[in-house]
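Intended use. Records like the one below are meant for learning the mapping from a protein sequence to its folded structure. Do not use them to infer anything beyond what is encoded.
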Amino acid sequence: MHACMHAFVFETSKTNHCTAPQVNETAAGRLFDEIADADDPTIATMEGICKLCEQLDIDPLEDIRILVLLHKMGADSKPAQITRGEWMQGCERMQVDSIAKLKNLLPGLDPGFMERAEFRNLYKFCFQFNRQGTHKTLEKDLASMLIELTLKNRIDTERLSSFVEFLSSTKDTSYDRITLDQWLSFYDFCIDCRDLSEYDEECSAWPVLIDDYVDFATSMKE
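Structure written out for the chain above:
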């Protein structure tokens, strides 16, 4: 019996291995070639990524799924680009080698399906990927745009709009650029503190940015 079962498992495994979907590496490579940088064909910059968005019929300024796709492909070696190696590994991992297959993935790239921890990783990636040059921070107008893009269906609409208004109206130059800690803290704050009336600044361990935002939001309601 043991020998028969072993043979069955071996044959089943062999059959599954043979029938497993295969990625056409040549086709996947050609997809990358179409979006690769003209001066450095080992990377695709934002220009190439925008071209990919056109092929996928999505708007990179309005549709977060391009960032979800880049995140799942592992485009994290440098901001604002994906390398050929990351692309090929991502295609293999996601079993895609054509625009049609990438389009078929789009419904499943909706971050609304993500649990908190997984979404927080995506949210962090969105900050890191959109950094410019050697900056470790984001210019606040860019941060505002990205916060609206990433959190518009994740947190309370009023909270989101009031925070963007706070960043837009503040005269505090220390908020001209937003740090990763501030970026992540705002999301965590929105999840952990649903009611601003319960916020206790004296006992707060949040960054000063959050204290200032709460003061602003509270004053707007008075």
